[in-house]
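Run log // design_07
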């Protein structure tokens, strides 16, 4: 059987781009997300373009029971996951802490931290049993620097940074590699989600400079995955050339 990559949040942006890159590299795929129609469409496209096998699993990573049920129901041969891309994540709102929306805070914490943990718990145990595996966690520049109004999103990505280090330490005896990829500004649906569908506001985030695109990050992830087995890239911070830090973007 081919190698297998499980990608969370594969319905859009970085996750969808990863699905294309891994399919191109002849990986069979387990693709997850909440929008089943998109998962089906992407799967059909990849099957016809690359002749790979694709399983789609529709679940919300915040729903602990559904995460474990969906993953455990995979046939055994599909549990031989070589690469887990913990990508599903989001930001909601951009407000000072005193004005923050508590539902948004919970959504970010439940998705970016707890959802990532649930998936990791299931898949890392398979990897231990299989004797191989590589986990890629999508952090962010927001997990390296706190910027004004980023508060809870930044905290959730600092948690991903800490968890990546924790996973690397705990999974070391089992030969499982752990890489954290921390992008700067990538133009995806991210800002539309952050601003709850306000496309005009979302577009302004990328005004006057060339942001990264999803495939830039997918190719970076592939670079980390395709190193020789004795090499682990612990972490990578990947920025648009026009961005020096979370708050310093050179706009024309
Ligand atoms: P997109 O909004 O384009 O894609 C996010 C993906 O996450 C979608 O496939 C979405 O699927 C999935 N997702 C969100 N919430 C859930 C949930 N509760 N359950 C299951 N899946 C979920 O954003 P990006 O591609 O940009 O973001 C991907 C990752 O990269 C995130 O972790 C983000 O924080 C991180 N990142 C993004 C940056 C950027 O500038 N864009 C920069 C740094 C990091 P669906 O809605 O179908 O469930
Ligand atoms: C997404 C990048 O700078 O909007 O994680 O937080 S940023």
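design_07 sequence
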């Amino acid at each position: 059987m081919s190698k297998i990559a499980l990608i969370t949040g594969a319905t859009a942006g970085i996750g969808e781009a990863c699905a294309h890159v891994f399919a191109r590299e002849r990986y069979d795929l387990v693709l997850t997300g909440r929008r089943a129609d998109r998962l089906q469409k992407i799967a059909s496209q990849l099957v016809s373009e690359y002749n790979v096998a694709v399983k789609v699993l529709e679940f919300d990573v915040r729903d602990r029971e559904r995460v474990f049920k969906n993953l455990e129901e995979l046939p055994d041969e599909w549990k031989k996951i070589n690469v887990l891309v913990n990508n599903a994540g989001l930001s909601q709102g951009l407000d000072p802490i005193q004005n923050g929306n508590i539902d948004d805070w919970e959504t970010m914490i439940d998705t970016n931290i707890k959802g990532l943990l649930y998936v990791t718990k299931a898949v890392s145990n398979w990897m231990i049993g299989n004797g191989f595996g590589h986990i890629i966690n999508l952090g962010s520049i927001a997990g390296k620097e706190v910027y004004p109004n980023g508060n809870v999103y930044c905290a959730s990505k600092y948690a991903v940074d800490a968890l990546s280090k924790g996973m690397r330490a705990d999974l070391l005896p089992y030969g499982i590699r752990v890489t954290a990829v921390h992008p700067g500004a990538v133009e995806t649906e991210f800002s539309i989600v952050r601003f709850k569908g306000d496309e005009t506001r979302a577009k302004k985030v990328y005004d006057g400079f060339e942001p990264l695109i999803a495939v830039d990050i997918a190719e970076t992830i592939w670079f980390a995955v395709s190193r020789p087995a004795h090499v682990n890239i612990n972490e990578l911070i990947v920025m648009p050339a026009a961005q020096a830090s979370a708050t310093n973007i050179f706009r024309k």
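Helices lie at 13-24, 36-50, 64-72, 102-130, 151-171, 190-194, 199-204, 214-225.
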